[in-house]
């Protein structure tokens, strides 16, 4: 009788363990663990020596659940507003460690849905207004919504009104969710292509839908039958068949984007299965999805027309980069070597990088990204203090500060 080989026994035990996990966890969580394990294994095989900057991570807080955003009020630099995917918004006092639940939203709990983004109004110090992006189930289907809230200096947050509502396809992924105010005072909203794989509805290239787009709206004024106004210089105002809210298009799942103090916009767009990308913001720009993934035709065997597309200034191939998490340009003073460089991470590959930005969107990065440090968790977001120092948030509910290393 042939005895089972040790490797086959190991595979059998792995299958049994996964079946047991399926009973405890929902399928999206199990799928995440599988994808992460495979990607980490491949990344280790592909890892090569790369230059590093002396940077480390200092634990600030733990015990949160599935952090999706971190924001620091300009008038309270030791406060961190912590957004959880499950619908909770917390206020954390970094010095005392005390935390206060500010709001609890009813949200969808499927794979990439939930409470995903927070932006503070440019005049937040005076008007106390903030904006939340969430995906909720309304009448049996998921809808992305942007809501205006007020946050007093003490006490709970209060909902003011719904600003924007977008119907989502019946898929649990690619909802994006970043909100940020530009230096022009307008609110920018990132929406993914709506989900599944390969953008089956062609939303990225369809100017008649808000999915797969970066929007730009005026939340300080109301428009005709809207709770917001359309900035008159938006690129598709007056274009037949196009939504006037659109500022840029051809995005798959922009997670995340940010402005620096010079007004430059950096968009991190998660790839399909081969290429992650970083882009500079271009008014009216077409970033190519789903005709292209990064600088490559999609599907790979297809022929595609790249004319008129905004090329990424950086792309990272799988498995070394697997699910990009956008960050910020470092504008602090604690780490001189990071000054002016864009810091980003990866949801699966446990590492932080920094890269020099090109002079314009038509250029590629002058240098390959520098590795900063390894991270033991799934990097979901970054946060920026008023002094330019950066936080890192992970899916395991921890917050870290990027600090000088040895």
Question: How would you concisely characterize the structure shown here?
Answer:
The protein has 3 helices and 26 strands. It is mainly beta. The N and C termini lie far apart (about 60 Å).
Key traits:
406 residues, 3 helices, 4-stranded antiparallel sheet, mainly beta, Neuraminidase, disordered N terminus
Describe this structure in words.
Mean pLDDT is 90; it is low at 1-36 and 42-48. It is built from 3 helices and 26 strands. The chain has one domain: 6 Propeller (Neuraminidase), CATH 2.120.10. The strands form 7 sheets. It has a 4-stranded antiparallel β-sheet, with no helix packed on it. The chain has 406 residues and is mainly beta. The longest helix is centred in the first third of the chain and has 20 residues, at 27-46.
């Amino acid at each position: 009788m042939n005895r089972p080989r040790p490797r086959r026994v190991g595979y059998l035990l792995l299958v049994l363990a996964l079946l047991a996990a399926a009973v405890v966890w929902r399928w999206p969580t199990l799928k995440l663990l599988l994808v992460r394990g495979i990607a980490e294994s491949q990344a280790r095989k592909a890892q090569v020596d790369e230059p590093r900057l002396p940077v480390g991570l200092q634990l600030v807080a733990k015990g949160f659940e599935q952090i999706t955003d971190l924001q620091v009020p300009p008038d309270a630099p030791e406060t961190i507003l912590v957004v959880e995917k499950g619908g909770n918004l917390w206020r954390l006092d970094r010095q005392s460690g005390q935390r206060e639940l500010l709001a609890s939203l009813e949200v969808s709990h499927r794979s990439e849905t939930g409470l995903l983004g927070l932006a503070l109004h440019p005049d937040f110090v005076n008007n106390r207004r903030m904006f939340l992006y969430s995906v909720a189930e309304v009448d049996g289907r998921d809808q992305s919504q942007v809501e205006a809230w007020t946050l007093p200096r003490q006490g709970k947050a209060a909902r003011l009104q719904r600003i924007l509502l977008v119907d989502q396809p019946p898929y649990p992924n690619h909802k994006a969710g970043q909100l940020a105010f530009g230096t022009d005072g307008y609110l920018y909203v990132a929406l993914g292509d709506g989900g599944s794989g390969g953008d089956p509805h062609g939303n990225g290239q369809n100017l008649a839908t808000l999915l797969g787009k970066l929007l730009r709206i005026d939340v300080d004024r109301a428009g005709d039958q809207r709770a917001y106004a359309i900035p008159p210089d938006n690129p598709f105002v007056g274009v037949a068949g196009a939504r006037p809210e659109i500022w840029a298009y051809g995005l798959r799942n922009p997670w995340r984007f940010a402005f620096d103090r010079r007004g430059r916009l950096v968009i991190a767009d998660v790839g399909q299965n081969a290429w992650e990308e970083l882009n500079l913001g271009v008014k009216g720009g077409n970033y190519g999805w789903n005709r292209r993934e990064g600088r490559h035709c999609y599907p790979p065997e297809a022929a595609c027309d790249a004319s008129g597309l905004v090329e990424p200034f950086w792309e990272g191939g799988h498995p070394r980069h697997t699910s990009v998490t956008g960050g910020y340009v470092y504008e602090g003073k604690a780490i001189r070597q990071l000054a002016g460089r864009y810091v980003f991470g990866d949801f699966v590959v446990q590492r932080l990088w920094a890269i020099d930005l090109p002079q314009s969107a038509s250029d590629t990065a002058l240098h390959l990204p520098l590795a900063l440090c390894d991270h033991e968790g799934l990097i979901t977001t970054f946060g920026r203090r008023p002094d330019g120092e950066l936080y890192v948030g992970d899916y395991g509910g921890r917050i870290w500060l990027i600090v000088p290393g040895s």
